[in-house]
Amino acid sequence: MDFIRYAERSAALLNAGLADVDGLRAHLADREWLVEQCTDRDCMLLRKFQRELRPVFEASAADRTAEVVEALNELMVRHPITPRIAGHDGHPLHMHVATKSQSVAELLVGESLLGLANLVCDLGPSRLGVCAASPCTNVYVDTSPNQSRRYCSDRCSSRANVAAYRARQKATAAAS
């Protein structure tokens, strides 16, 4: 498994609206094999995990790298991860997360933690962030070569740039 993709999925999970099973199914639309397995219990467990995971992204955004590592380690103790080697559908051998019950929530939590732990080890603990566009509070994983990402999406980036441009225009007009 591509651990960057696991890490990016963790950000998407944190940004997902999981008020009910329909929200979880919408989040998993690209993973059809999981959609039918979703339960209310999965939603409840994932909302709890969202509250536990958000401080990791906030600590990274605030450049508190030791806190990122400590929080991820604590989460991996609370949510043990069991990786397994898989080879299927003509793909070469790769890693997957195995869970005892195979619940959707346990699988998504395991993928998130495994992806984030590998990302932090490979690229550093400062690669997680919270969108700089106000009032957005979404999170993102920065895989850019120069570690320059500040927004969760192109939409937020464009909106922030337009707002900054308008503010400059207004300041220039006020100074004239």
Describe the structure.
It comes from Nocardioides anomalus. With 176 residues, the chain is mainly α. It has a single domain (3-175), classed as Jann2411-like fold. It has seven helices and four strands; from the N terminus they run H-H-H-H-H-E-E-H-E-E-H. It has helices at 3-15, 21-27, 32-35, 40-61, 65-78, 104-123, 154-175, and strands spanning 82-86, 94-98, 128-130, 139-141. The longest helix is centred in the N-terminal third of the chain and has 22 residues, at 40-61. The chain is globular and about 70 Å long. It starts with a helix and ends with a helix. The model has no long low-confidence stretch (mean pLDDT 92).
Write a concise keyword list for the protein shown above.
176 residues, 4 strands, Jann2411-like fold, single chain, two-stranded antiparallel ribbon, two-stranded antiparallel sheet, mainly alpha, globular
Beta strand %: 5-15%
This entry's quaternary arrangement is single chain
> Helix/strand-derived class?
mainly alpha
The neighbouring-strand order within the major sheet is 1-2
Bulk shape: globular
Kindly state the number of beta strands.
4
Radius of gyration: 18 Å
- CATH level 1 name: Mainly Alpha
CATH architecture: Orthogonal Bundle
The span between the termini is 58 Å
Gist of the model:
By secondary structure, the chain is mainly α. It has one domain (3-175): Orthogonal Bundle (Jann2411-like fold).
Topology:
Blueprint: H1 3-15, H2 21-27, H3 32-35, H4 40-61, H5 65-78, E1 82-86, E2 94-98, H6 104-123, E3 128-130, E4 139-141, H7 154-175
Antiparallel strand pairs: 1-2, 3-4
Helix pairs in contact: 1-6, 4-5, 4-6, 5-6
